[in-house]
Amino acid sequence: MPVSFDRREFDQLLRLYGRMVAANEWRDYAVDHLRDRAVFSVYRRARDMPLYQIVKDPRLARKQGMYSVVGQNGAILKRGPDLARVLAVFDRKLRLVGT
């Protein structure tokens, strides 16, 4: 059975997406429910490669944490067991842009 984001997780992702759209950073998203992980990808333009991928991988829950934010180059920007804390990596980026 594929891994998916639950309602609470998806709500957090969409609130972040709305903030980033309002900041004119993101313009499109895609959700993939794969057998081993769920992926929320965000894009500047629909035809581009994803800027970021927010991944839920339950296999890593007891190790580094099941949530991670992966950059466009494949580097893991933040990983942990709590989605809200992992998504906080985008708050820091917004503060840098705003100053």
Report what the structure shows:
The protein is globular and about 35 Å long. Strands 1-2-3-4-5 form a five-stranded antiparallel sheet. It has 99 residues and is of the alpha+beta class. The longest helix has 16 residues, at 7-22. The protein contains three helices and five strands; from the N terminus they run H-E-E-E-E-E-H-H. The model is unreliable at 94-99 (pLDDT under 50). Strand 1 (28-33) and strand 2 form a beta hairpin.
Radius of gyration: 13 Å
Sum up the overall morphology in one term: globular
Q: Structural class of the secondary structure composition?
A: alpha+beta
Q: Give the strand content.
A: 25-35%
Helix percent band = 25-40%
- Largest sheet features: 5 strands, antiparallel
Distance between the termini: 45 Å
Report the order of strands and helices: HEEEEEHH
Residue-averaged pLDDT = 88
Largest sheet, spatial ordering of strands: 1-2-3-4-5
Number of helices: 3
User: How many runs of DSSP E, i.e. beta strands?
Assistant: 5
Topology readout:
Layout: H1 7-22, E1 28-33, E2 38-43, E3 52-56, E4 67-71, E5 76-80, H2 83-87, H3 89-98
Antiparallel strand pairs: 1-2, 2-3, 3-4, 4-5
Considering the chains and any ligands shown, give keywords for the structure.
99 residues, alpha+beta, 3 helices, disordered C terminus
Can you summarize this structure?
The protein has 99 residues and is an alpha+beta fold. Helix content is 31%, strand content 27%.
